[in-house]
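yo

u said u wanted the structure for the complex thing, so here. seqs first:
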Amino acid sequence: MNKRRLHQVFRVLHQTHGPQHWWPADSRFEVMVGAVLTQNTAWSNVERAIVALKDAHVLSPEALLALSDAELARLIRPSGYFNVKARRLKALCRWCLEHGGHRRLRHWSTDRLRASLLSVHGIGPETADDILLYAFDRPVFVIDAYTRRLLGRLGHPQAEAPYETFRQSLESALGADTELFNQYHALIVAHGKDVCRPKPRCETCRLVRGCGFAAGNRALGDAQ
DNA sequence: ACCCAGGGTCATA
DNA sequence: TATGACCATGGG
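structre next:
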């Protein structure tokens, strides 16, 4: 899928949903925590967990590591997978502290940061890219299930390819543009959850010629 | 009573 | 490389 087509899709999404304001957080560290907590989880549930962490005054790597696994799991309970995520959050905190925090890490190259993040237990390609884009302002196109489904149905040939293949095809087509990627990913998520899922064929799908994005739990790339 | 949500790990073939 | 089980809450 070429640059013009990708920009056309972006334009329609932007016209339909308006400018997004991602990532919703008060600090870089809160972005990282949210990126882990939102794994396969509705954001509304993540918000409760983050509020609980703020109320307990533990939204920092040091304070969070000082909690027991059980205490941390109890605080983040509303976000689901709380035992798994408690361990993942601690691994992320250790990573931050070991490398001197955001002030040191922000001087690393994007590739070095990604490789390091991927070595942290519980951080996969999407969570790593969320952090790179929204906490470190790197020009990274975040790919999630919505991205594969929407662009796949709009005819992108790599939509079902491995994560890195699809990401690099999008980034090489669009060129490094942090602000564009920030909005694009947010808009795709907004599109997926606010409009496209509940309705058989939303306004965006009507405007974007060739989009057969139908409702329901359908396999990726099955529509036309 | 389902289905799904801003995934990732691990075991298995 | 590619499936499948597992993790768990809350809203529709």
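The mean pLDDT of chain A is 89. Chain A has 13 helices and no strands.
cya
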